[in-house]
Amino acid sequence: MTHARDERAALCDLFDRLGPDAPTLCTGWTTSDLAAHLVLRERRPDAMGGIAIKPLAGYTASVQNGLKAKHPYPELVDLVRKPGGVYALLPFLDDAVNTLEFFVHHEDVRRAQPSWEPRELSEDFERLIWKRVSSGTRLMLRRAPVGVVLHRLGGGVVLGGPRGGARVEVTGRSAELLMFCFGRQEHARVELTGDPHAVDQLREASLGV
Prior knowledge:
By secondary structure, this protein is of the alpha+beta class. The chain has two domains: 3-110, no CATH class; 123-204, Nonspecific Lipid-transfer Protein, Chain A (2-Layer Sandwich). It contains ten helices and four strands; from the N terminus they run ααααααααβββαβα. A hairpin with a 4-residue loop joins β1 and β2. The longest helix has 20 residues, at 91-110. It is globular. It comes from Nonomuraea marmarensis. This is TIGR03085 family metal-binding protein.
């Protein structure tokens, strides 16, 4: 098993346990919406454009709603549980692309529930997450209004956001820094230090891929 497969399986188990109407951190989406999104992402490449390109978002939303209407919730979860499309044919691509995707969405469901706490991840998974965060910081923080200095507990520093002006230091474990950089600032267990106005700007910014 890979970390991508582990996170996929854990997310689907949580989907099964919570049912179709549980909240998530994805604004306006329940667990059934998130499951339909993940099916679309792997099995409907014609509709993927709207995930990142606003003019195509209407078509993507209509396909996603169509998947929800066509498949009962248990079927949607079963479709998520098994890699689809190119990821079924190329397991190495599943690991490369889906490790962070499924980790973040697993946390999107976990952290929307009452009394959640961060998971204890293996050291190799923490290192892998930090490696991916380090290489993707410029992309994930491209809309940051201030400079950002990420400090990983256990070692590691990386810069993102604008090069000039105010800077905010963000300190936490790899997984928490990932959630922060993916736009889940409110639900990331990190410490922010810097000018209070700059900190507020960063907390409210639209971050992520």
